[in-house]
Amino acid sequence: MPFLTDIIPIALAFFIVAVSPGPANVAVATIAMRSGRGAAMLFGMGLGCGLALWGLVAATGMGAILQGSAVLLTVLKVFGGFYLLWLAWQSYRAAMRADHAPAPTTRKDHWFMGGLVLNLSNPKAVVAWMAALSMGMGAEQAGAPLVIATVVCMALGFMNYAGHAVAFSLAGFMRGYQRFRRWIEGAIATLFAAAGLGLLKSALSR
């Protein structure tokens, strides 16, 4: 394939962005340690679908339209900011829960929807997609090369979240979580709160 040399840098750039620490990866890792592999895999599937939808937006050229729409971008940032603050509150509640208190249960469809909403409410995802797809791919390479690059990056996104779900649901991580639950959840609550407030500040500054 003559365009394979163009797809490889796109895949590498996207993979680096995908595995970087952020709210999505932190969330799926936390759910894996807190609720096990099954819940984390469902959450990761939702994250992957949300990321894939942003990929379609970027690949079809709608990402540039979104970037130019101040109103829509602001709405997404506000929604995403409040959703991250809600996740911060959930982590804070988990940190404050007594050690003997049972963890609250969540329906299976809620895990998937939670992951989907988290990535769909993050407008920065489409920026990452646009940056990755633009690497080494000119306008003359639209069509099949763009489709293949998009599908490869979508697969990498799903693999990343599945990898986090599997790795952090291992017995060692789950035992460590139980031992240091309050500290871990407190740190995660702080991270989510900072990310949420950052999105809200960005929305209000436009």
Q: Rg from C-alpha positions?
A: 18 Å
User: How many beta strands in the DSSP annotation?
Assistant: 0
| Quaternary | single chain
* Proportion in β-strands: under 5%
The backbone outline, from C-alpha atoms, is globular
Q: What structural class do helix, strand and pairing data support?
A: mainly alpha
- End-to-end distance: 44 Å
Could you report the average pLDDT, rounded to the nearest whole number?
Answer: 84
Number of helices: 10
Percent helix among the residues? Answer: over 70%
Count of the domains: 1
Low-confidence stretches: none
Protein described:
Helix 1 packs antiparallel against helix 7, helix 3 (37-59) packs parallel to helix 6 (108-120) and helix 3 packs antiparallel against helix 8. The radius of gyration is 18 Å and the shape is globular. The mean pLDDT is 84. It has one domain (23-204). The N and C termini lie far apart (44 Å). It has helices at 4-19, 23-35, 37-59, 62-68, 70-96, 108-120, 124-133, 144-168, 171-179, 181-204. It is built from ten helices and no strands. It is mainly α and 206 residues long.
List the helices and strands and how they pair.
Blueprint: H1 4-19, H2 23-35, H3 37-59, H4 62-68, H5 70-96, H6 108-120, H7 124-133, H8 144-168, H9 171-179, H10 181-204
Q: Which features would summarize this protein structure in a list?
A:
206 residues, mainly alpha, 10 helices
Summarize the structure.
With 206 residues, this protein is mainly alpha-helical.
